[in-house]
C-alpha cells in the first residue's frame, strides 16, 4: 500500500569524484526523485550511468557534492544513527566468512542488528530454512544471493535497498526472489531497486527512472515511460524494391526509419495505421514481407533509445570532465 509520505526524497543530487583541485568527474549531475511509503522504485541505466553512485548517497555512505537527500525525513549521512537502524541494504557482494554455516552467519549479523528477526524466520523467508547447517562456501551462487537478502531484511527494515538482487540466478531463482520482494512490498516495505534486467523492473516496479550520464533520462510508471516510445515495424524489403517504392512513409504515420542491408525499420506512434497501410501495399504489389515483425513500444525500446543516444554523445567531443579549479 502506498501513501503520499516521501520515504526517500532526492533533490538535485550531485556527486563528484576527484580531489577538487584538478579536473574532477561528475558521476551524478542533478538527480531528483522521490519514493512513497510502500512503493517499489527501480533505477535502471546503462553501465556507468551513475546508479551505484546515487544509491550510495541515499544509503548515507558518502556526502553529496550538492543537492539534498532525505530518507525517512533525515539526512542519511549526517544523521546516520537515526536512519541506519530503519534501512536494509543488500549489496552486490556480501563477502561473508566462508567457513561459517548459514545459521552462524545470520546469528552473527543479528548481533549487530536492532530488532532482528529470529534466524530461523529470516532463513525461512528466503527459502534457506533447510540449508541452515551448510557452510557458506558450499552454497550455490543463487543461495548466496538469498542469504544476502536474508541479512538485508533481518532487521525488518522500513526501506530496503536492493542492488542487482538476481544477478547470477537462474530463471526459477529469479522468479522466487521476485515473489519474495513482492511479499516484502505487500507488507509495506519501501524498496529502491537497481537492476540491469528490464524484465525485473517491468515486473516489480511501481515507478522507475532510467539514468544516463549522471542524469535521469526518463522516469514515471512503466506504462508512462513505455508510452513515450514509438512502436516499431521491421521487415526485409522484397527483392528489387527500395524504400522509395513504398507509399510515402509520412502518409503511413511513420516518424522515422532505418535501413540495414535489406532490413527496414519503421518507427511510428500510430502502429495500426502504419501496419495496415504497409500490408495493403504488400497485398496490392503481390509481394511478401519476409521477417515481418510488428511490436508495440516497450521498456526495452525506451532503454535502447537512451543507450543509442548515449553512444552518439560519447562519440561527440564534449565530456563530463569538469574543471573544478575554476
Ligand atoms: N570511486 C570512483 N572514483 C572515480 N570515478 C568513479 C568512482 N566510482 C565510480 N566512478 C565513475 O562514476 C561513473 C558512474 O559509476 P557508477 O558505478 O555509479 O555507475 P552505475 O550506473 O552503477 O554502473 P554499472 O551499471 O556499470 O554498475 C562511472 O563512470 C564510474 O567510472
UniProtKB/TrEMBL annotation:
Pfam families in UniProt: ABC_tran (PF00005)
GO MF annotation, one: ATP binding
Superkingdom to which the source organism belongs: Bacteria
Localization of this protein: Cell membrane
UniProt keyword Transferase present: no
Keyword presence, Ion transport: no
Main location class: membrane
InterPro entries given in the database record: AAA+_ATPase (IPR003593), ABC_transporter-like_ATP-bd (IPR003439), ABC_transporter-like_CS (IPR017871), ABC_transporter_ATP-binding (IPR050763), P-loop_NTPase (IPR027417)
Start and end residues of each ABC transporter domain: 8-238
UniProt topology in membrane: Peripheral membrane protein
UniProt keyword annotations, A-Z: Antibiotic resistance, ATP-binding, Nucleotide-binding, Transport
PROSITE patterns found in the cross-reference section: ABC_TRANSPORTER_1, ABC_TRANSPORTER_2
PANTHER family tied to this protein: ABC TRANSPORTER ATP-BINDING PROTEIN
Protein name in the entry: ABC transporter ATP-binding protein
